[in-house]
Design brief:
Chain A is α/β, with parallel strands linked by helices and 249 residues long. Chain A is built from ten helices and eleven strands.
């Protein structure tokens, strides 16, 4: 079996994800926000490339059924209910709602994945939950790809380190040979370098520093809360829902 | 000043290289081959995207003036004088000659760099020579970019590790603040992981393993010979020549 890490390549080569389980990582902040929203009872999250699509789609819902959310250049979008700060997605605000969501990097990465067997949304706050799914896939002989959304199509440190954490844990209890691509090996080295010191990771990362400078320090703290929101967000039929026994409650 | 590492982005954003000194790294094997050819007295090397351009251009030279060189899928191109094995570029074969050169990754990366102040070709075999140039640039206040050619537009471990070696050495004796992008930080972590163990680096790297399997083990040994070919190959006016006092001999 293979574990490949993909560093924000656009367009994504179809062969890199075909018939695989693909984890899309955008730690700061889209993946984290999605996990928090689902953990707090959002019915589903629909990702869009553009804000115009969000607005257009919102017209097919009753106003009370939906929440419009997203950011451009880290800031909330005019007229939307939320930005991309995970702390905004409280149970009071999202329970039972459909969240229409557009962010600069994370949602675009999701929409770009075509032909995968399953697509899950991964971050530190739901790390172990997603790990279970990826491990199950590998043990069943399904290759795994971990797609780092990156920032403006550039390599981003925090996504690569999070990918490396998945690679390390997946290798640990996996019998038999596992093939790693070069990016997976590099991610492992990064993960070894930062370990659990996510505060240092986010301080070193350009996007972490930019968020701190823009006043989003609290988001960084939340995004570093390992396993605080143990959900498995699955992207299927153009929407993200929570996998598992709690799905139907 | 800034040191940015760029992981094989295509197309290359012009802002990432404008007015900078750019080092193009394709350790396996184009950058190494270029250093060896110039060290062995090649007059100049002209990189081309396509083999057709090589053949067309060769017609404007006397046959004895030129050497046609390059690879596709690691193998020599039919009708060319050399492949991309650096050991082929002996003094007997290249001294005083113009080398018309097309490789899958390295030459494309060179041709893609537009608007840089200076472009140099970097590898392990001419590491310290290129380092001097980059350090001089930084001390003069010029930003540096290190472009990892990668393999088929994918991240490649050996180029990133070589870039990390440049970053580490540049930081060591640089006064004042140096800004690093995320890829530069990741490259540093990689470099720390491999250090001088280039044999292990090439064994871990997908392209290194592919070359070994294709019978090019000796090339890997040569590509790991740190500072064995201490030249500074400069790409200017669409050709690569050797910088320095030996240029005119």
């Amino acid at each position: 079996v293979r574990i490949d890490v993909l560093f924000g390549a656009h367009p994504l080569p179809a062969a890199d994800v075909a018939n695989r389980v693909v984890a899309v990582v955008d730690v700061l902040r889209a993946s984290t926000t999605i996990a928090v929203a689902l953990a707090n009872g959002a019915r589903n999250i629909i990702p869009f490339d553009s804000t115009e699509e969000v607005i257009l789609r919102s017209k097919s819902f009753e106003r009370r059924e939906v929440r419009l959310a997203g950011e451009r250049r880290m800031l909330p979008i005019s007229g939307f209910d939320f930005g991309n700060s995970p702390a905004e997605f409280t149970r009071e605000m999202v329970e039972g709602k459909t969240v229409l969501f557009s962010t600069t990097n994370g949602t675009g990465a999701l929409v770009a994945v075509q032909g995968a067997r399953d697509v899950v949304v991964a971050s530190y706050v739901n790390f172990s939950a997603v790990l279970v799914l990826l491990r199950t896939a590998l043990r069943g002989g399904t290759d795994v790809a971990i797609l780092c959304a990156g920032r403006d199509r550039q390599f981003s440190l925090e996504d690569a380190a999070c990918a490396g954490r998945f690679v390390r844990h997946l290798l640990r209890r996996q019998g038999g040979e596992v093939l790693l691509n070069d990016a997976a090996r590099a991610a492992l080295h990064l993960e070894r370098g930062y370990g659990d010191d996510l505060a240092r990771l986010f301080t070193d990362a350009a996007h972490g520093r930019a968020l701190a400078e823009a006043g989003f320090e609290d988001d960084l703290t939340l995004c570093a809360q390992l396993d605080a929101y143990p959900v498995i967000p699955v992207y299927h039929d153009r929407q993200i829902t929570k996998l598992g026994p709690e799905r139907e409650r």
